[in-house]
Amino acid sequence: MSRTTVVDVVKHCLRNSSLSYQIRGNMVVIRPADEIKKGTEEAVQFSGVVYDENGLPLAGVSVVLKQASRGAVTGPDGKFTLKARRSTT
Fold it and tell me: For position 29, what pLDDT does the model report?
């Protein structure tokens, strides 16, 4: 019996097909190759700092991307980061 990796097995199984894979944490996601490429290209990250009227950073402020239904809360330094996908419409 020979040893092989999960990635090698997935590559072997998907050869000669229009499918591709991504590793997400401890999961293997299999989709049509064009969907995986498209999803990777459309990922976008937003970050910033929220200040009050005196220029001091605000902690605990909710920041929401309205159309993506995603949100974040600012840290003690007023900083936030949001990850989303670009709209294709």
Answer: 83
